[in-house]
Write a structure and sequence with these properties.
GO biological process, one term: DNA topological change
Keywords: Coiled coil, DNA-binding, Isomerase, Topoisomerase
Largest sheet: 4 strands, mixed
Number of helices: 28
Organism: Denticeps clupeoides (denticle herring)
Protein name: DNA topoisomerase I
Family: Belongs to the type IB topoisomerase family.
Number of strands: 15
CATH topology of one domain: Topoisomerase I, Chain A, domain 4
Length: 793
DNA sequence: GCCGGAACTTAGGATGCTTAGC
DNA sequence: GCTAAGCATCCTAAGTTCCGGC
């Protein structure tokens, strides 16, 4: 679908998947670094990421200043939304009907339409040969970055206190374990065994090794048996539409233990005065005390919500007395909790084993069900315990009390002819139903959000697997239809109907940037996050020209889970012009797509292809990116480690595309510093080894003494070993750095057709367990069994 | 056609367990 | 044998989509 004379952004800056998320140049850089990987990639890669990180920081500051200016310009006040979503938006969105454009404008835009190009194949070519790699490293000054909102706030105190709390926590933990260590050493001194006993011990050790080997063999056998017993549902005929099962039997959910009152000697203090709380108030106070090390408890909203709900649990007397959270001292409760945590950590092997067995017993009893005469694992058979609601980001309900769920709140779903689970003694179920058109086993309503929670099957079950398979099949269907669909929305960009144009631009973003659909949300009920259809004017900035690119859209918004999406993307002139139009006469808080919602969008999509929704584009683009990246990055001549690295890089490209971020591990800086120190040490060793080799060579020169030649060989080997180890460490450091803020597992589990990975493993002769762990292999058993080498997504 | 709720998938953080390296 | 780091699993919040009722 290339068009003559087109200024094809995709061809200019190929590599579709990689482009998205962080912008074209960054992906040129990425490619450059990837290419260098074949040689000494480590340095290039580390430099690249360090560079990006520093640019992110710079850009963040610029962005903040800009935003403040914008806010001041739009009348100041809250940076948030101006318009209320949902009800008010309904009126706003349909206001005045759909506008039409004049013929003249349409004609003029038709001329520009040739600029529009979306070509997967072209975009997926990694990198551009036109731009020298080194230049890219220099050019990437303004950085295409993406950072967590959380981090933006890090300088504002709250996370500081959390860090402080964590540091204190860590120190105390270290102190306690140091004490334990000392005690242990003392005991060891006292209990030192006589030599005879020691030798007996070594015999025991030997036996243990044999036992270990036997256990391994047993494990292997069990694995084989398990494999044989696996229900190959994918080889069976499907039930008629809507029917999920024909027989379902289970034991009902497992309830958390009742509250165990605190010891009498523990006190709560109000305004410095000792106060004995009633059981209800004490329990809820403990929930708060348990979280004192967490940043949550420093947030005003969290504190206010907690206090409001806590007071509801108090007796009249308590309520009269306790009126200010600031005057509450939960210190003793908090210390008690910490002590319990420590005790848990310091359990002996035996204690741990007893506990493990007890848990296993619970799992065996409640963790499985019989579905159509097959034993299936339940995903979440435990009822959520009570506690304080941990809504993410600026959730208005964070801190509210999540109440204890009783059997009287729970609806059970099972077969009529099955043995209905017994409710716990003295209780009864809210309802028992026999609905085989749904997949859940039990459900209840959550008191905080009013949402229904479900007990469902594990990801490796038939019900989940079948749906997963179906999902990827729909995405594969899109592959053959996508050109037509793109042509259609390209045409729609010049429609006379405003709604149609908005739909086309939204689709362009969903397709090109893998944005989520973006449902409307009720204000005040959840954190202020958006997706494509719910974008507001304040979430984008238009640049006629930026960083040498024309028509650049700068996105900055909080998406699902309050993860920040930040990206600067060059778009076609037509998209750019439409965006300008959509933003005319609007306030920052107004909807960008005021004549569009996810319902309308999905309705349109399903008319283009059965089963097509906005979400399918994400699955399709993620999977196709993986497939193309694997083709690009790996070949059969690489060694195992290199092959795996290429797989991880392909996976990483998808994670970046889908904006799957994670908070850097708490110990990241320390662990990197440790690794760097090791690398330095190893470098010194290498220098020494080289010098020794040189010396040995000198001594052996002209001397036929075999001993001296042997020494040379020995030194040579030592040096090589040193080099290998150094390289390994550098690779590790690079990999760790790359993964610092990227979560790979989400895309692997939810977006990447497993058949692509299975086929890749077969073609590359890589063992599947190198890319999928046990759980993942279980989940994707259907794909593992049905995929051949020649599978194409 | 809109709305709200039900049903399901997707998501990152917390926690516990295992393994590598000293 | 110990410790730190990495990995797996658990947990549950937060999305998307579908569907029935008005």
């Amino acid at each position: 679908m290339k068009e003559c004379g087109a200024v094809n952004i995709c061809l200019k800056s190929p590599q579709r998947g990689l482009q998205r998320g962080t912008g074209v140049k960054k992906w040129h850089l990425l490619h450059t670094a990837l290419t260098r990987l074949q040689g000494s990639f480590a340095v290039a890669w580390a430099l690249f990421w360090r560079h990006v990180a520093s640019e992110m920081e710079k850009d963040k500051k610029t962005k903040q200043v800009k935003r403040e200016k914008r806010e001041a310009g739009s009348g100041g006040g809250t940076p948030g939304r101006v318009s209320k979503k949902v009800k008010s938006r309904g009126v706003k969105k349909s206001q005045g009907g759909d506008e039409t454009y004049g013929e003249k404008e349409v004609k003029q835009e038709q001329v520009e339409s040739s600029e529009f190009q979306v070509d997967d194949a072209a975009r997926l070519q990694l990198g551009s040969k036109e731009e020298p790699a080194d230049e890219d490293f220099v050019q990437e000054k303004r950085g295409k970055k993406r950072k967590r909102q959380k981090e933006d706030e890090s300088g504002k105190g709250t996370s500081c206190s959390s860090e402080k709390a964590a540091a204190v926590k860590k120190k105390k933990r270290t102190d306690i374990s140091a004490e334990a260590k000392t005690d242990k050493k003392k005991n060891e001194g006292k209990l030192k065994m006589p030599k005879k006993e020691e030798s007996e011990k070594s015999v025991t050790k030997k036996k243990t090794k044999e036992e270990i080997e036997a256990a391994r063999t047993l494990k292997r056998k069990l694995k084989e048996e398990e494999e044989q017993q696996r229900w190959r549902w994918w080889e069976e005929e499907k039930y008629e539409a809507g029917i999920k099962w024909k027989f379902l039997e289970h034991k009902g959910p497992y309830f958390p233990p009742e509250y165990n009152p605190l010891p009498e000697n523990l006190n709560f203090y109000y305004n410095g005065e000792k106060l004995k709380l009633g059981l209800r108030a004490e329990e809820v106070a403990l929930y708060f005390a348990q979280m004192l090390d967490h940043e949550y408890t420093t947030r005003e909203v969290f504190r206010n919500n907690f206090f409001k709900d806590w007071r509801k649990e108090m007796t009249l007397e308590e309520r009269m007395l306790i009126t200010d959270l600031e005057k509450c001292d939960f210190g003793e409760y908090h210390n008690f909790h910490k002590q319990k945590v420590e005790e848990r950590k310091n359990r002996t092997k035996e204690e741990k084993q007893v506990l493990k067995e007890a848990n296993q017993k619970i799992t065996d009893e409640y963790g499985f069900c019989m579905l159509d005469h097959h034993r299936e694992r339940i995903g979440n058979f435990k009822i959520e315990p009570p506690g304080l609601f941990r809504g993410r980001g600026d959730h208005p309900k964070q801190g509210l009390l999540k109440k204890r769920i009783r059997p009287e709140d729970v609806i059970i779903n099972c077969s009529k002819e099955s043995h209905v689970p017994e409710p716990p003694a003295g209780h009864q179920w809210k309802e028992v139903r026999h609905d085989n058109t749904v997949t859940w086993l039990a459900s209840w309503t959550d008191n905080v959000q009013g949402a229904t929670k479900y007990v469902m099957l594990n990801a490796n079950s038939k019900l989940k697997g079948e749906k997963d398979w179906e999902k990827y099949e729909v995405a594969r269907q899109l592959k053959s239809r996508v050109d037509g669909i793109r042509a259609q929305y390209k045409d729609d960009l010049k429609s006379k109907q405003m709604g149609t144009r908005q739909r086309a631009v939204a689709l362009y973003f969903i397709d090109k940037l893998a944005l989520r659909a973006g449902n409307e949300k009720e204000e005040g009920e959840t954190a202020d996050t958006v997706g494509c259809c719910s974008l507001r004017v304040e979430h984008i900035m238009l640049h006629d020209s930026l960083d040498g690119e024309k028509c650049v859209v700068e996105f900055d918004f909080l998406g699902k889970d309050c993860i920040r999406y930040y990206n600067k993307v060059p778009v076609t002139k037509r998209v750019f012009k439409n965006l300008k139009l959509f933003m005319e006469n609007k306030q920052p808080g107004d909807d960008l797509f005021d004549r569009l919602n996810t319902g309308m969008l999905n309705k349109h999509l399903s008319s283009l292809m059965p089963g097509l929704t906005a979400k399918v584009f994400r699955t399709y683009n993620a999977s196709i990116t993986l497939q193309q990246q694997l083709k690009e990055l790996s070949n059969a001549l690489l060694n195992q480690a290199e092959k795996l690295l290429s797989y991880n890089r392909a996976n990483r490209a998808v994670a970046i595309l889908c904006n799957h971020q994670r908070a850097p591990p708490k110990s990241f800086e320390q662990s990197m510093a440790n690794l760097q120190a090791k690398i330095e040490g190893r470098k010194e060793q290498l220098t020494l080894a080289k010098a020794e080799l040189k010396k040995a060579k000198k001594e052996a020169k002209g001397n036929s003494d075999t001993k001296l030649q042997f020494v040379v060989e020995k030194k040579k080997k030592a040096m090589q070993r040193c080099e290998e180890q150094l390289l390994k460490m550098e690779v590790q450091a690079t990999d760790r750095e790359e993964n610092k803020e990227i979560a790979l597992s989400t895309s692997k589990l939810n977006y990447l057709d497993p058949r692509i990975s299975v086929a890749w493993c077969k073609n590359m002769e890589v063992q599947l367990d190198k890319i999928y762990n046990k759980t993942q292999r279980d989940k994707f058993a259907w794909a593992i069994h049905m995929t051949e080498k020649d599978f194409e997504f």
